[in-house]
Amino acid sequence: MTSPPTVRYRALIADLVAASRRHETALTAAVQSHADGIATIEHDLAAADDAVVAASARMAHAQRLVAQTDLAAGALWDELKQVRGRRGRRLGPVPPPLPLPEQPASASTDPIALLESAAARIDRARRGGEKLPPLILPLLFALGAACAAVVTLLTAFLQSHGPVGLLAGWLILLGAPLSGLLPARDLADRWFGARLDPGAIALTILAGMLATTALTLA
């Protein structure tokens, strides 16, 4: 049975209203999505601008730090050449920077701290080092004796390997009492910021001579 025109008209009106509502809903969603996209883009652009400004500030700070470090390093290099006297002429110009070796996270790589440490060492060298504390004297004696003992035992090992080893062992044995001077100097410099005076040198050599003699006669 064919529907009357009035019923069909009402159905068409209802479909038109539903389609209009769907269109309005889709249009509203599209407009909101467009607005959200614009806001996201504007936010990203603002964040990028802030990052560029921060990076530029860090780069400017790094450039100033590099310039200050170069000037301070040049001044310290000139002071080092003056402290070394005639030997300082062979140092030449300031060496180029070298990459730092891998270090633990706790290690200090601050260039200012490193320059201050170098300046302190140069000043100490100009003043001749700090005075040796009494505590270091037993350490120097023990160090001289230990180094001489190691060298003496090495010579005994060499002397048991034929005439060549015997000759090499005797030659090395002559320097056994002096073998503790280099580690003693490093000990005084690194731990106490001092230089070995004649008394400390004589004490170290005496300990080496006693240890060498005792092991040789044993």
- Tally of contiguous helical segments: 6
Q: How much helix, percentage-wise, in residues? A: over 70%
Q: Name the beta content range.
A: under 5%
**Major beta sheet summary:** none
Tell me, what's the shape?
A: elongated
Taking all Cα atoms into account, the compactness measure Rg is 41 Å
Based on helices, strands and strand pairing, what is the structural class? mainly alpha
- Tell me the total number of β-strands: 0
Low-confidence stretches: none
- The first-to-last residue Cα distance is 134 Å
Quaternary class: single chain
pLDDT averaged residue by residue:
80
Write the H/E string, N to C: HHHHHH
Polypeptide structure, described:
This protein is an all-alpha fold. Helices cover 76% and strands 0% of the residues. It has 6 helices and no strands.
Produce the secondary structure layout.
Elements: H1 5-84, H2 111-127, H3 136-159, H4 162-174, H5 181-192, H6 198-217
Helix pairs in contact: 1-2, 3-4, 3-5, 3-6
Short description:
The chain is mainly α and 218 residues long. 76% of the residues lie in helices and 0% in strands.
Features:
mainly alpha; elongated; 6 helices; 218 residues
